[in-house]
Automatic annotation (TrEMBL):
The keyword Cell cycle belongs to this UniProt entry's keyword annotation: no
UniProt record similarity statement: Belongs to the CCR4/nocturin family.
Top-level taxon of origin: Eukaryota
UniProt xrefs under InterPro entries: CCR4/nocturin_mRNA_transcr, Endo/exonu/phosph_ase_sf, Endo/exonuclease/phosphatase, PDE12-like_N
Domain Endonuclease/exonuclease/phosphatase: 287-598
Protein name (record): 2',5'-phosphodiesterase 12
Needed co-factor(s): Mg(2+)
Signal peptide: 1-18
KW Manganese (keyword) present: no
Location(s) in or outside the cell: Mitochondrion matrix
One cellular-component annotation, GO: mitochondrial matrix
GO molecular function: metal ion binding; poly(A)-specific ribonuclease activity
Length: 609
């Protein structure tokens, strides 16, 4: 028999259908209690979450049954009756175990458990046991298990992964790592709490909404910046996944105790130059090799490359604290990152990510989207506004693959064929080029081409880098001519090339002669002599030729660049690099005060309207 709650929900659904036929003026005098009562009843039911996707053979049903969480997987084309029988069987099985436990303890067991009735209702009507699971488990249905009722939520927004960083520092932004299904992270609700007294327990406290005296709400939004007063306390984050007006089941995350930060960081003084966003029509550009975790955690890195760096400061969670604060403080419009393991997506920026072939790190390009300022950043005065960008298209390539497959590189490939050994070596490389065509939201048609790459690393690999850059420039010229004629180019990256290299000469002079030393950098067996012409006019290094952008024990040099086309962009401001004293405070980079072995390049470029 249909329960009293289900009957009321059924009557509510019928009433709602009838009310839609009445004139609006009559509805205005109706009691809101009548219209919302059944909704409150549904809201108070325990949820039965169903995940069912077309094309998948199984669906899953998740619910709390007799005090324990059940997660069942059933065939989509199975009759509903079998799934309901399985729920009933599982409940009676747990009751049977409870009976045996009582018997072992010497207690008198009760009567044999009666088979629990399990029914599914939709719009007040019982769903036939012969209905297929894929059709029966509809959003808004009511599952009745004995006297307990569940509100069926089908394909509800769900957090499939949710975790806080292992390391939290005072005055550094905290952002959870989240993955969502059937929802949108931008729609989700976030509420942050701080415990009222320091607690060393690692177990999450049980929160009863409106009755929890152990936690105090301290913020909302995906990003939270704990204060110095929070040191020694834990944070709790309540995340509610959403998709527009639809909400899923919230998750609570408990942090470790907040620790003191490292003090003055290498980027703190640089932030004084970037307190405000660049004013339109200018754009602020950042290029930064942030040191991939896959490289920072090797035994070679810990014992040979960075032995001076405290081991905890090489941990990803610790370094990401610094990276996020550093990038947020630059108030950038375009950020090109190299050696990225995970994309950063919570600072008012959208982005695209491209991994290298056969590797676990790659490139990321972020751009400021339209909307409010990024969390934690100051709002611009009303008389100013910064650029808002949208992605029109991406044209990413693997440089070695493009060399052999794209006919625009046929001349270069033919010249390279004279050195079989060098050609073979080049084709082994997994280097990629990321190309993004962006458009100014406030002025449609105003486009810019942003390129990002990380060239081959081997110090003696100058000839390989020359060919890679030749392919990159040819591809960029093709993209601009075909997709965004007249658009200026911003070319960022870790080029692993000194200012006296062939790569720098190719970019700045548009030609590398056949006698350049880099053509024989790998020795006589892989030497190659060719005159290499750039497909683009000479470009300008926005930072010029700094003494170094990479500083590690035993090596320092300029490897990173932001190149622009001087006829369509001008350098307005170059943010000074950290002083040598700041860089060497802890001997070299990375350190407890700097997250990478490279230094970020930041400049404001006037982009002609």
């Amino acid at each position: 028999m249909l329960s009293s709650t289900c009957r009321r929900v059924f009557m509510f659904n019928r009433l709602s259908a009838a009310l839609t036929l009445l004139p609006r003026r009559l509805l205005l005098v109706s009691s809101p209690r009548t219209l919302t009562g059944a909704c409150r009843l549904l809201g108070r039911m325990n949820p039965a979450v169903v995940r069912c996707l077309p094309g998948e053979p199984k669906l899953t049903i998740s619910l709390s049954l007799d005090g324990s969480h059940k997660h069942m997987m059933r065939d989509q084309d199975e009759p509903l009756g079998k799934a309901l029988a399985r729920i009933s069987h599982g409940l009676n099985k747990s009751k049977g175990k409870a009976k045996k436990s009582k018997k072992k303890k010497g207690e008198t067991p009760g009567e044999a458990p009666v088979l629990t009735a399990v029914k599914l209702y939709y719009n007040g009507e019982e769903v036939s046991d012969m209905s297929l699971n894929s059709e029966a488990w509809r959003d808004g249905a009511v599952l009745q298990v004995g006297d307990v009722e569940y509100s069926v939520r089908r394909n509800t927004p769900t957090l499939t992964n949710a975790e806080l960083p292992a390391s939290l520092l005072a005055e550094f932004p905290v952002c959870p790592n989240l993955e969502i299904e059937f929802g949108n992270l931008e729609d989700c609700e976030f509420t942050w709490y701080r415990e009222n007294a320091p607690n060393t327990s690692t177990e999450a406290a049980v929160e009863v909404e409106g009755q929890d005296s152990e936690w105090t709400q301290v913020g909302c939004g995906r990003v939270h910046v704990p204060s110095v007063q929070d040191i020694g306390y834990r944070l709790k984050l309540r995340c509610t996944p959403k998709d527009g007006g639809r909400s899923g089941l919230p998750k609570e995350l408990l942090s470790t105790a907040i620790e003191a930060g490292p003090g003055v960081c290498t980027f703190d003084n640089r932030h004084a130059y970037t307190l405000k966003e660049a004013e339109w029509p200018s754009v602020r550009v950042v290029s930064y090799n942030i040191l991939a975790d896959t490289y920072a955690q090797t035994e070679l890195s810990k014992t040979v490359l960075y032995p001076y760096c405290a081991p905890y400061a090489l941990q990803l969670d610790y370094r990401q604290n610094l990276i996020k604060k550093e990038l947020a403080g630059y108030n950038a419009d375009i950020i090109c990152l190299q050696e990225v393991d995970k994309a950063l997506d919570a600072f008012g920026l959208d982005g695209v990510f491209r991994t290298k072939d056969r590797q676990h790190e790659g490139l990321a390009t972020f751009y400021r989207r339209s909307g409010p300022p990024a969390p934690g950043l100051k709002k611009m005065p009303s008389e100013f506004f910064s650029v808002s960008l949208k992605l029109l298209s991406s044209h990413n390539i693997s440089l070695s693959e493009a060399l052999t497959s794209d006919p625009i590189h046929s001349a270069l490939l033919e010249n390279l064929s004279a050195s079989t050994a060098l050609k073979k070596n080049i084709l082994k490389r997994s280097t990629v080029l990321q190309v993004s065509v962006l458009e100014d939201v406030s002025k449609p048609g105003r486009k810019v081409c942003v390129a990002n790459t990380h060239l081959y690393w081997l110090p003696k690999g100058g000839s390989i880098r020359l060919v890679q850059m030749g392919v990159a420039l040819q591809h960029l010229n093709h993209v601009i001519n075909e997709v965004a004629p007249g658009a200026p180019l911003i070319f960022c990256g870790d080029f692993n090339s000194h200012p006296d290299s062939g790569v720098f000469q190719l970019l700045s002079e548009a030609l590398v002669p056949l006698q350049h030393a880099d053509w024989s950098s790998l020795g006589p067996e892989e030497s190659c002599s060719m005159e290499l012409l750039s497909a683009l006019p000479p470009l300008l290094s926005a930072y010029g030729q700094p003494a170094y952008t990479n500083y590690v024990g035993g090596f320092h040099g300029c490897l990173d660049y932001i190149f622009i086309q001087p006829d369509s962009m001008q350098v307005e401001q170059v943010i000074p690099l950290p002083s040598h004293q700041e860089v060497t405070t802890y001997e070299a980079l990375p350190s407890v005060a700097h997250p990478s072995d490279h230094i970020a390049l930041i400049c404001d470029l006037r982009w002609n309207p």
